[in-house]
Amino acid sequence: MSEHEADLGLGQTLERNIESRIEALIDISRYEDAEKLSREALASEPEDAYLLFLLARAQFGQSAYDQCEATLHACLAADPEFSWAYYLLSLLHHIEKRFNSEIQCAEKAASMAPQEPTFIQRLAEAYLTSGEVKQAKAVLQQLLEIEPDSKAAHQLMGDIDFRLTNYAAAETHYRQALTFDPENIELLNDLARSLYGQKGKHQEALDMWFNMVQLDPTNPVLTDNLISSIKDWQGEKSASGKGKNQLSDLPQALQYFYEDHQKRQSFMQKWGYIVWPVIWIVVLAGVSFLFSLAEK
After folding, report:
1. Who has the most CB within 10 Å: 46, 63, 206, 253?
2. CB-CB contact of 108 with 87 (8 Å)
């Protein structure tokens, strides 16, 4: 090995070590340190596309979006085929609600690396954000062919089928996603919603929501879904002239929960217009008292 080849190998090793250190800092959310180290490395390699991409990731982590976009364009100027730069631009434009640009960048990344699952999922999310539901579903089907056990892909496919009112298909995908994360409250809530959309599965959905509320009693989304679904369930037969579902048809614990919630809501509606003004009067009196002490 010549001396030049040895120096070249050492330089490449040092560069990989620096890149690994920056990646590690980003992974533990030490974005400022990652930015500092990236800039130090770029001082000697100002057109290194990967170092520029790492700098952009550090800026993205700090919500420095204008700087991040400028760095990503510098990255693409150094290497127009750097697909991950287009991926990060797509995420950036999503945050900034620049949805046409989001799709364009996601499409560019996916066209450059059509077998990269991350790019395919990003493209499906971009289509879904813009309301292009059928296109999002077609893209996700490609992803599931590549990664049939992808939790994220099944969850997103469930969201798409739910939006298309394909509730049975949505249920299947949510159940598949839950095999990888069985205690995920968001997924369980989505599963309950898909069950409630299907004839004959309303009570199963109510039972699911009730169990979730017991596990997470401070979650307002779960409580609201449960209460509104019980109200809807009670009146669902009346349109067909078959009377109404009776609260007494539900398990006793669920009946008690609903009745208790309605009593508390009734109390707040009846007395809220008095209670809240009193609270504000007390708060303002307390603030005025503190100011009077400060002036003395």
Report:
1. 206
2. no
Residue 177 is part of a domain; what is its CATH number?
Answer: 1.25.40.10
SS3 269: helix
Per the structure, the complete domain to which residue 180 belongs is given by: 149-232
Chain segment 204-249, per-residue pLDDT in tens = 988 888 888 888 888 888 888 888 877 877 776 555 545 566 777 7
Virtual torsion, Cα 277, 279, 281, 284, nearest 10 deg: -130
Q: Please, what is the Cα angle at 41 between 91 and 1, to 5 degrees?
A: 120
Q: How many domains does the chain contain in total?
A: 1
For residues 234 and 246, give the distance between their C-alpha atoms in angstroms, rounded to a whole number: 6
Q: What is the pTM of this model?
A: 0.71
pLDDT at 294 over 70: no
> Which amino acid would we find at residue 219?
N
Quick check: is 265 in a domain?
Answer: no
Sign of the dihedral through C-alpha 275, 276, 279, 284: negative
Contact present, 211 and 191 (Cβ < 8 Å): no
Whole-number percent of the chain with pLDDT over 90: 58
User: What are the C-alpha distances in Å from 65 to residues 68, 70, 109?
Assistant: 5, 9, 19
Q: What is the DSSP letter of 251?
A: -
| Phi, psi (degrees; rounded to nearest 5) at 236 | -70, -25
Structure tokens at 30: 């030490």
At 255-265, the pLDDT tens digits run: 667 776 667 66
